[in-house]
Amino acid sequence: MEKLKIVKIGGNLIDDDQKLKDILQDFSNLNDKKILIHGGGKLASALSTQLGIVPKLHEGRRITDKESLKIVTMVYAGFINKSIVAYLQSFGDNALGLTGADLDMIRSHRRIVTNIDYGFVGDIDEVNGEALLNLMNSNVVPVFCALTHNGKGDLLNTNADTIASALAASLSAHFSVDLIYLFEKGGVLHKPDDDNSVIDNINLSTYEKLKKDGTISSGMIPKLDNAFTALKEGVSSVFVGASGISKERKGTILSLD
Amino acid sequence: MEKLKIVKIGGNLIDDDQKLKDILQDFSNLNDKKILIHGGGKLASALSTQLGIVPKLHEGRRITDKESLKIVTMVYAGFINKSIVAYLQSFGDNALGLTGADLDMIRSHRRIVTNIDYGFVGDIDEVNGEALLNLMNSNVVPVFCALTHNGKGDLLNTNADTIASALAASLSAHFSVDLIYLFEKGGVLHKPDDDNSVIDNINLSTYEKLKKDGTISSGMIPKLDNAFTALKEGVSSVFVGASGISKERKGTILSLD
């Protein structure tokens, strides 16, 4: 099967313009078919602060009210997404910036209210695999930001890691998909504060052990859960690390066994 | 030839959410192929003010420095563009939000500095007619905001009226194109302050007269210059008015003779 690389960039990799350009140049050097997904929470929080809007959090997770949705739409779909598209075009990639609303790419529903209402936050229902495949076959390079829609006129804030794994799973019937999560840490770490303690390989059984003994905790668990879900749904490989898209990679390789 | 409607919405039509929804519902009722272009200067100015950034103007025209470019990218390509896309999707149109950088749709160059440097403002060089035609043939509804790119990684702020007429001219070889400019005034007016003084028809020779006697001045001249350029380049009809996309229209019809 033809190869497809799905690359998610997040953390502080996109806050710094020169760092972002370097990563995009590396991404652009990939000769395989490819998709980019980006976050941008830090820039959104910075704009919130500038506008005097205090971010509302519940157990560390952002509550997206109407005003916050406007801010993330401006920052994710506007500033970050279109800056990336313009850079990639200058490097020769035929980039197209997308939210899940564009071409009805990703449908979601507003997260069910239990004890807490997260507001305009979406959990994914369906990826429009046919439309995505059409773009792939036209050599378009889709650039997704962390927004989906419910088909009723609402944009919904949606985790970029989850979008990456959902896109990867949806295309795994047509391509041999490598899913690459790039973030500021050097990979999954034995010791959270020591970037030199990268764990080279994790499989499903070692993952359970590392969770049980507390080595892997908090923010990494949803990311890795997404990764293992993608592997179970047919994605060929998952890599979590700080650098290396077309070049040598440093980080953690995940596998089912 | 197959019909194509190119609709530009601007002015205060997009500031009010309910007014915007009504216009988009009307646009959605069009059964012809169609393209939407939107402005958003007022919302961009409002965000500037909120952020404490004083808009820089020269003879009434905005100077787009780096910070202003970021603001218009957030407002035009982010908030307004994606809100429109989500609404149109909910009305059954397969909308796709675009800047000129996406799919390399519209190339421009930074405006030549003479006595004044307008900053990140682009004058259009070329529309990617082939990519646009592909979207038309796939029944996609493109939604363009007022940004283009120079192919070197820079987004450039570009007049939405000019984008509309450039797209119209580029597609006039393939479609019978109706170009529709909607804005807050009821059309081209005999008396600027009297919305009931709409001029029903203007051709190239009456246009020259109306400019000479001062009836048409200031802000309307670039808009109408764009319109007549489009007519000369093969666009079938141009309409300037306050309302009526799929329904009865009220406003001014422009023609060459």
UniProtKB/TrEMBL annotation, chains A, B:
Transmembrane segments: none annotated. It comes from the Bacteria. It catalyses: N-acetyl-L-glutamate + ATP = N-acetyl-L-glutamyl 5-phosphate + ADP. The record marks K8, K223 as: Transition state stabilizer. GO terms for molecular function: acetylglutamate kinase activity. Residues 3-240 form the Aspartate/glutamate/uridylate kinase domain. It is found in: Cytoplasm. Substrate binds at G40, G41, R62, N157. Its main location: cytoplasm. NCBIfam families: argB (TIGR00761). This is Acetylglutamate kinase. It comes from Splendidivirga corallicola.
